Fold this sequence. Notes:
With 355 residues, the chain is an alpha+beta fold. 48% of the residues lie in helices and 13% in strands. A hairpin with a 2-residue loop joins β4 and β5.
Amino acid sequence: MRGKKTSVKLRKKRLSDGSESLYLDIYYNGKRRYEYLKLYIDKNQETSMQRDINRRTMAQAERMRSKCLYELLEHGDVAMIRLDNKEDGKLNIVEFTKKYLNKANAMALARKVDTYVRIQMGEYTNKIIKGILDKMISELSPMTVERYSMSLKLIMRKAVELRIIPESVKVDIVRCKSTHRREFLSMEELRRLIDTPAPHTKHERRRDAFLFSCFTGLRISDIERLRWADVSQVDGYTRITFTQKKTRELEYMDITDNATRFMGKRGIPSELVFGCLNKNSFTYFLTKWMRTAGIEKHITFHCARHTFAVMMIELGTDLYVTSKLLGHRKIETTQVYTRVLDKSKREAIDRIPKF
Length: 355
């Protein structure tokens, strides 16, 4: 960082009342910016007390100048980004979330946190975050704590990205130890769904997207952003290349005809493969469609991903390979599905009548 031209000078701006406002003239690698310190020198009163106040103000300003110069010399571009985003660091968590995320779950969490601690975004530390999580654990249900901790991680990750807080500030997701069933479709139920048309023609692409997920394991957040430009032919397979919205990692998957049949006729590169999927009424559509197919399970779109995972394991696919197909970072996440399959096998055995 020291090879780049860097200077931080303390300057004064005369105001209309005769006082002087102190500010920093910052120059780094061809870029110049000014930061007003909200410190003032009053020369209207030439008293010994006022001169002493002015001396202390100048000393404080000089310390701020030295600190700014040190950060630029040590951290360079990162320090400049931090300076540019300094105003965002003064926002509280509700204001920050509304500005950069504005998602329902994140906003709900932000409002909750704001009742615990009223601090600026730049003041968050691991100790403060642990205190927030501990308080939530003592007050809220395990499922709510898990959901809130995921939102808190999302918010803090954004603050780290903007260099408002250091990378060392992290949020550990508090996993819910709930024993609720991960619902999925059996192969027979999947065949039944394929043979069952959508309740209405306007639901056809939703039906196709759900079945596509059953054979690829893609989340709806990735399916709804898939464009024809992301679809190519490689060694006789149809390949989709996409960036996972959840992990932000670039992935590719070679898919079979079972999945490609639901993609429809190829469009222009910029066109969405499944069009605009209105997620607001997806639950209503799935409930009606399942009922038509004679399936009594409570199925959400994410159950399609569960279906794919269980199907892969049931067909003997290696657990490591299955985890890569699902885009899991940790194989432990995929192991959950082996337990789901074991439970289903036991339920099947229990249905055998006594002789």
